[in-house]
């Protein structure tokens, strides 16, 4: 079992930046992949970015590529999402996720709200 705790959401103007953090408080040693998703009310949760925990190799959704960087600090069992040049359509609840396997996401954080004003 892995417990994920997110922080760093908030309100920012368009063009601004935010950094989200997600710490695995329990079970970090079981994580193979970690990532971020986001969800807008009435829409499905969508993939934003992920990385392999061991190597840090990232993957990004096309909608955020070039504006978002995912990274991790293995000593702190924390994965970060640095978001730059934010746009109003980035407004969503952002969820951290982790998994001990290559496919599927087994563990989720509680979500953190990101609101980008125009």
Verbal overview:
The protein has 118 residues and is mainly beta. Strands 2, 4, 5, 6, 9, 10 and 11 form a seven-stranded mixed sheet that branches. Strands 1-3-8-7 form a four-stranded antiparallel sheet, with no helix packed on it. Strand 5 and strand 6 form a beta hairpin.
Biggest sheet character: 7 strands, mixed
Classify the beta-strand content into a percent band. Answer: over 45%
DSSP helix count? 0
The class by helix and strand makeup works out as mainly beta
Radius of gyration: 13 Å
* Secondary-structure element pattern, one letter each: EEEEEEEEEEE
Uncertain runs are none
The N- and C-terminal alpha carbons lie at a distance of 40 Å
- What characteristic shape results from the CA principal axes? globular
Helix content: under 10%
* Mean residue pLDDT: 95
Number of strands: 11
Brief summary of the model shown:
By secondary structure, the protein is an all-beta fold.
Q: What secondary-structure arrangement, pairings included, does this model have?
A:
Elements: E1 3-7, E2 10-13, E3 18-26, E4 33-39, E5 46-52, E6 58-60, E7 68-73, E8 78-83, E9 92-99, E10 107-108, E11 112-117
Parallel strand pairs: 2-11
Antiparallel strand pairs: 1-3, 3-8, 4-5, 4-9, 5-6, 7-8, 9-10, 9-11
Any key phrases for this structure?
single chain, 118 residues, mainly beta
């Amino acid at each position: 079992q892995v417990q994920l705790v997110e922080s760093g959401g908030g309100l920012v103007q368009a063009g601004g930046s935010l950094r989200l953090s997600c710490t695995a408080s329990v079970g970090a040693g079981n994580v193979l992949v970690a990532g971020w998703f986001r969800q807008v009310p009435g829409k499905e949760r969508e993939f934003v970015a992920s990385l392999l925990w061991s190597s840090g190799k990232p993957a990004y959704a096309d909608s955020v590529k070039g504006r978002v960087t995912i990274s991790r600090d293995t000593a702190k069992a924390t994965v970060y999402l640095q978001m730059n040049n934010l746009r109003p359509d980035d407004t969503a609840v952002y969820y951290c996720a982790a998994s001990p396997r290559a496919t599927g996401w087994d563990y989720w954080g509680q979500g953190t709200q990101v609101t980008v004003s125009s």
